[in-house]
Amino acid sequence: MAKNDPYAALRFREFNIFLGVRFAMVFAWSMQFVVIEWQVYSITKDPLSLGIIGLMEVIPAVAMALFAGHIVDQSEKRNLLIKCIAGFSVVSLGLFLITWPLIISDMTQNSILYIMYALVFVGGIVRAFLGPTVFSLFSLLVPKKIYPNAATWSSSTWQLGAIVGPAVGGFTIYLIGVHWSMCIIFGLSLIALLLLLQIPRKPILNPNIGEPVLKSLREGIRFVRKTRVILSVLVLDMFAVLFGGAVALLPIYAQDILKVGPEGFGMLRAAPAVGALVIMFTSAYFPLNKNAGIKLLTAIFGFGVCIIAFGISTVFWISMIALFFSGVTDGISMIIRQTILQLRTPDAMRGRVAAVNSMFVGSSNELGAFESGLTAKIMGTVTAVVFGGSMTLFTVLLTAYKFPRLRKLDLRKDIAAHEAN
């Protein structure tokens, strides 16, 4: 296999199937979130209600994350992922039913709203297990020496789903309504299940099967705390995403500020993912491993600048450009972060490390949505977005000062060590 082969990971059939599963799930999850945002804001016209959506998902995701990581490390990954997708299917079916006019004709708007929040809460439980399971299964499908290339394609697939999901969500709301948009989401989850069944069961690499839960959790937390590079990356990304959660307020921008309707909403929602996808395909040919720490810090600083530019814009095409470049910078960050985690996490501890990652980073998306909704309620929408972008810039500067090892990080030695094995 060629040393610099940009398609190295795609030469493994099971990894290609995995990419199909990941695309379908990200497509479905991101489309579902967009449709829920639109429906909830249409009911309430309250920016805080958008923040509550994120809060309802993040509470169970954070509360169960470490326990989920322990379960993942103790379990066979393929079957556990099947259970996660089945759980998501139940949630999407519930959302399909609660938006059916025949069912909700006699229900109050508040009742519908509370049921949607409850289903989002159940989805948060599913997500606590989904992230660590996907991260752990990934490592069993390709050789370690091509982890960086596989991480690039996996992240690209994630971003492709994040492009298609919001865009389709915006247009299907306009064309067929919220109810049938939910039906599409349910169908995508079934497709993901059928694809996953083509991957055989995988061995459990954890030598400590049956290890007590508390001991297992302590080991996972201790590893992250002692591995300073991983800890600094998680802290940096958590605060950047937490304060840069402007996308949660896109329904307000689309309906009240830019006045572009559901079609424009879908385009705005997809713009960051388009930018990220462009950089991810480019990075397959031009890896980001050299001076990775500086590139990571620069990218997140650029992300904060883009969020500020979006916040103050009242012109649709300027907003689109700002969101596009926020995706470019976020894509660089995601590739470097995923490569670091894959290269520096032992096989037996992947579930727990991914669980900590989901607490720091994954859940900060929803906390960021709540922060954006709350600050928009207090400060006003535009001021809240500008405040969030400014805090992202401050976080990057503080992290660069507090974690000098991150500034000096270069991943070429890690990659050479894996290739030697």
Explain briefly what this protein structure is.
The chain has about 425 residues and is mostly helical. The chain has helices spanning about 15-45, 45-65, 65-75, 75-100, 100-105, 110-140, 145-195, 215-225, 230-245, 250-255, 260-285, 290-310, 315-345, 350-380, 380-400, 405, 410-420.
Task: Describe the protein.
The protein is mainly α and 421 residues long. It has one domain (10-198, 213-420): MFS general substrate transporter like domains (Growth Hormone, Chain: A, Up-down Bundle). It has 17 helices and no strands. It has helices at residues 13-44, 47-63, 65-74, 77-98, 101-104, 109-138, 147-196, 213-226, 228-243, 250-257, 261-285, 292-312, 316-344, 350-379, 381-402, 404-407, 412-420. It is globular, with a radius of gyration of 20 Å.
Question: Low-confidence parts, pLDDT < 50 over ≥5 residues?
Answer: none
CATH class category label: Mainly Alpha
Shape: globular
If helices are DSSP runs of H or I spanning 4 or more residues, what is the number of helices?
Answer: 17
Our measurement of the CA-to-CA distance between the termini, rounded to an integer number of angstroms, reads 15 Å
Determine the structural class based on helices, strands and strand pairing: mainly alpha
Mean pLDDT: 82
Strand and helix order: HHHHHHHHHHHHHHHHH
β-strand percent reads under 5%
Q: Which topology does CATH recognise?
A: Growth Hormone, Chain: A
Query: Which architecture name does CATH use?
Result: Up-down Bundle
What's the total count of β strands?
Answer: 0
Q: What percentage of residues falls in helices of 4 or more residues? A: over 70%
Number of domains: 1
How would you name the CATH homologous superfamily?
A: MFS general substrate transporter like domains
Radius of gyration: 20 Å
**Could you give a short account of the major beta sheet?**
none
